[in-house]
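Consider the tokenized backbone below.
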């Protein structure tokens, strides 16, 4: 496997775009379940489902989606399409703990005005903050014959 270089960081962005199309229906299903439990809203100013509950369950759904894929195969479907794989620093599949650490660190990377993501442009091995914190990295897989 080839280490992810600066010129291939666009693959990460495109894989994230693909994965948004997979996560969106999961978030809709999450909202459906919560609205089914709490009932429909009477007014937009007073939602039936508390905001904190909707946001917390959405975060759990998103994190679980990524951790399951990363732990099972090292790739989400978007990562498979762009031939990138997540492994630990010893080139092994990541643990569930590393997946949750990476997810939390990715949130931090995003909240800091995306600086954690931009870090790959400056890091000698093109690693983001969440790669560094979780002791993981992305590799580009060779094309299939």
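A designed sequence for it:
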């Amino acid at each position: 496997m080839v280490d992810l270089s600066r010129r291939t960081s666009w693959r990460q962005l495109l894989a994230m775009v693909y994965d948004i199309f997979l996560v969106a229906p999961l978030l809709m299903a999450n909202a459906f379940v919560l609205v089914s439990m709490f009932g429909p809203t009477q007014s937009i100013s007073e939602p039936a489902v508390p905001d904190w509950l909707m946001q917390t369950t959405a975060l759990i759904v998103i994190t679980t989606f990524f951790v399951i894929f990363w732990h099972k195969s090292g790739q989400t479907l978007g990562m498979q399409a762009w031939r990138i794989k997540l492994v630990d620093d010893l080139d092994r599949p990541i643990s569930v703990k590393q997946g949750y650490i990476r997810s939390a660190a990715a949130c931090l990377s995003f909240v800091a005005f995306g600086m954690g993501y931009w870090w790959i442009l400056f890091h000698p091995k093109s690693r983001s903050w969440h790669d560094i914190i979780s002791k993981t990295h992305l590799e580009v897989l060779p094309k299939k014959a």
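The helical segments are 9-38, 51-73, 77-81, 96-111, 115-118, 129-134.
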